[in-house]
Structure formats: structure tokens, C-alpha cells
Design a protein that fits this description.
This protein has 375 residues and is α/β, with parallel strands linked by helices. Helix content is 38%, strand content 13%. It has helices at residues 13-22, 31-44, 55-65, 82-89, 135-145, 199-206, 212-216, 236-246, 249-272, 299-311, 327-332, 342-346, 360-374, and strands at residues 48-52, 73-77, 94-98, 120-123, 148-152, 160-161, 164-165, 172-176, 189-193, 285-286, 292-295, 334-335, 349-352. Strands 1-9-8-5-4-2-3-12 form an eight-stranded mixed sheet, sandwiched between helices. Strands 7-6-10 form a three-stranded antiparallel sheet, with no helix packed on it. β4 (120-123), α5 and β5 form a beta-alpha-beta unit. The two termini are 22 Å apart.
Length: 375
């Protein structure tokens, strides 16, 4: 059986976790949390990185920093994970969904401006599959209308747009280190902050509303409750697990890219004859091989394909059910404009196995079965 996903493991994870235990420092903001924050800051060029318990919590933290209030509207694609919307619904805001581009499955940047009202506070582009949205256009719209941009870069670490790391272009960026991501800490995420003016407030909210971070840096002689907040700190043991992978980030990414390229090369003949569609990576975008997907003709063909692959010991999965069709999406949000592509394209897309220890021989075996089904 070839699983759809196997959490990454490099070999040093348990050694680093043991060091945390022996140091008797396993709560948040320990040595490995700091190492991860510093690594991400250096790798991406962001002003500040704060490791969090999940990408969901990173997005919630960004919503708090952006001052999202009840009744505000936040523009985003409906083709995304529920966390993208949840972070703003919790603040009483209304997610306004717009259609996607069928080539990248990202928000259609040309439809954003028409969805803006006097209640709009933020734009949340989601970089699907680690392939960037058209950020120049999005930032231009945000600047024109004085809107906050919060990048959902859950799938985007090690990806870039015109030389800029994803997560560093908007006001805030959010990474995920869930077990299905390129680098994992089981459950975890990170908030990237572009503007220095938000850093102190972010540290306070992340530390339950206290100025504890300043206390630990020796800037104050005691800490106290100074604002609202919550506990967004992951255990340092989780950070230790993650750091073992960050040390090998280039190697892990290159291996995934090798598998992605092999998929593309082997399946291109099927795409050339119109049997399937393959992912598109626009010029100026460097992706991280977070996933490899194909598009079947329709939902019926996709379902038959998934069943066929499972019968042959290969687990393939479809992805998001568009949020505007979900009960909560209809309750809390609204779709602006026409759903030309979101639902139709989502029903065609199927993800093939992709993980760090996947071998090129396994990729070839998977491609053989894909060819057998569609050929």
C-alpha cells in the first residue's frame, strides 16, 4: 500500500525531543522554538516569526492584530480549508467568497475589487499547493482601498513570488506544520509579521495577554496582564521535532520537487491528449512541491479513479468542499459574483501521493496505474 501521506521524519527528531526533556523545559518558547523562529526569519526575510500551535491559530492571531471587528468583511476564496474563514468568523466578521482561477486554483485577483464594500477590512489570498497568488495585483488593490492582506501560506513554506518568500508579501503570513505539510511538528504553525509595529502586540496576545516575552528578555523585572490574549504557544518538544526537518529543508524540498517533476514528465502525454489536466505554475512563481494533483473530466470519473487506485494499493484523495456550499459557509458568509470555476474545478481535482520518503520508483508505479486508468 502506498499511503497518500507519511509525516516527514529525518532521524534527529527524537534526539532533539530528548534534549528538551533533559533540560526540563518542554513548555512554549524554549530553545527549539527560538531556533525555529530564527530559522524562518533568516530563510524568508520576514521581520518577525512567532511559532504557534497551528496555522489556524496563526490566522486567528493575524485577525486580532488586524483589528477585525463584528460586521467587517474579509475577501477570500471558497476553495480553501475551513480555518481560513473560521479565524474571521470567530471575530464576528463575514467571509466574502470570490471565484478561483481554474489554472492555479487560487483566488481570481481580477474579481477581488468588485467584491469590496465599505465594510471590507482585509483580503486573504490562499496560496494553493504552494503556488503563489498574483500578489502584485492583490497588494495594489489592498493599497488602493487601505485593506490588510493576510496570506494563508499554510502550504507555502519554501515557495516564492518574484523572489519574495510567500508569507512575507502581505501584512501577515501564516504557515502550517501539520503532519501533512512539507515540514511537520504534528500540529503547529507560524505567524510572519512584516511590520515591526505589530511585534510587541503579537507577543502579548500570544502569551495570554501578558508581557511575559519582555520579562524573559530582561526588559522588565516582572510581567503582568496587559491586554486580551490567548495561549498560542506550542510545546518546545513539538518545535524540536520541527527543527530536525528545518535543518534539512533544502534536501526535503529538492526530493519533493524531484517527485513532482517525475509525475509531470510521466503524465504529460495524458495531458497532451486531453485525458487529464496537470498543475500550472505561472511565471515568477517558485513552488515547493507541496502536492501533485491531476484533474479528471468530472466528479464521476474522479470517483471511479480513486476507487481504481485504492484497489491497486494506492491512496489518492480529493480536496476541499468549497466553503460557500457548506452549512457554516452559508450561515456565516456569502459568495460574491458567479461560481464559474470553484465548484466545478474542485469536483475534478484529485491529489496523488506526495511525501518526503516517497521514492521515484513508487512515483513510476503510481504513474503506471494512472496511465492504465486513463489510457
Amino acid at each position: 500500500m502506498i499511503n497518500f501521506n507519511v509525516p516527514p521524519y529525518t532521524g534527529k527528531e527524537m534526539e532533539y525531543i530528548r534534549q528538551c526533556v533533559e533540560a526540563q523545559k518542554i513548555c512554549g518558547d524554549g530553545a527549539y522554538t527560538k531556533k525555529c523562529n530564527e530559522w524562518i526569519e533568516e530563510k524568508t526575510g520576514t521581520t518577525k516569526c512567532l511559532l504557534t500551535t497551528s496555522c489556524t491559530h496563526a490566522t486567528e492571531l493575524a485577525a486580532l492584530l488586524a483589528g477585525i471587528q463584528p460586521g467587517d468583511e474579509v475577501i477570500m476564496p471558497a476553495y480553501t480549508f475551513v480555518s481560513t474563514a473560521d479565524a474571521f468568523v470567530l471575530r464576528g466578521a463575514v467571509p466574502v467568497f470570490v471565484d478561483i482561477r481554474p489554472d492555479t486554483m487560487n483566488i481570481d485577483e481580477n474579481l477581488i475589487e468588485a467584491a469590496i464594500t465599505d465594510k471590507t477590512k482585509a483580503i486573504v489570498p490562499v496560496h494553493y499547493a504552494g503556488v503563489s497568488c498574483e500578489m502584485d495585483k492583490i497588494m495594489e488593490i489592498a493599497e488602493k482601498h487601505h485593506l490588510v492582506v493576510i496570506e494563508d501560506a499554510a502550504q507555502g513554506i519554501m515557495s516564492s513570488y518574484k523572489g519574495k518568500a510567500l508569507g512575507t508579501i502581505g501584512d501577515f503570513g501564516c504557515f502550517s506544520f501539520h503532519e501533512t505539510k512539507n515540514f511537520s511538528m504534528g500540529e503547529g504553525g507560524a505567524l510572519l509579521i512584516r511590520d515591526e509595529k505589530y511585534v510587541e502586540e503579537a507577543e502579548i496576545i500570544r502569551e495570554k495577554g501578558t508581557n511575559r516575552s519582555k520579562f524573559y528578555r530582561g526588559q522588565i523585572d516582572k510581567y503582568t496582564w496587559v491586554n486580551y490574549g490567548s495561549s498560542y504557544l506550542p510545546s518546545d518538544m513539538n518545535a524540536a521535532y520541527l527543527y530536525a526537518q528545518l535543518e534539512l529543508a533544502d534536501e526535503i524540498t529538492q526530493h519533493r520537487l524531484d517527485c513532482w517533476d517525475r509525475y509531470y514528465e510521466r503524465l504529460k502525454p495524458l495531458a497532451d491528449t486531453g485525458r487529464i489536466e496537470l498543475p500550472v505554475v505561472p511565471e515568477g512563481c517558485v513552488h515547493n512541491a507541496h502536492m501533485f494533483y491531476i484533474k479528471a473530466k468530472d466528479i464521476e470519473e474522479r470517483s471511479a479513479f480513486i476507487s481504481f487506485m485504492k484497489e491497486n494499493g494506492i491512496m489518492c484523495v480529493f480536496h476541499y468542499i468549497p466553503l460557500h456550499t457548506a452549512p457554516a459557509g452559508q450561515k456565516f458568509g456569502r459568495f460574491h459574483g458567479e461560481d464559474r470555476y470553484t465548484t466545478g474545478e474542485s469536483e475534478r481535482l484529485v491529489r496523488l501521493p506526495m511525501f518526503y520518503n516517497l521514492t521515484l520508483e513508487q512515483v513510476d508505479g503510481i504513474c503506471d496505474k494512472v496511465m492504465e486508468f486513463f489510457g
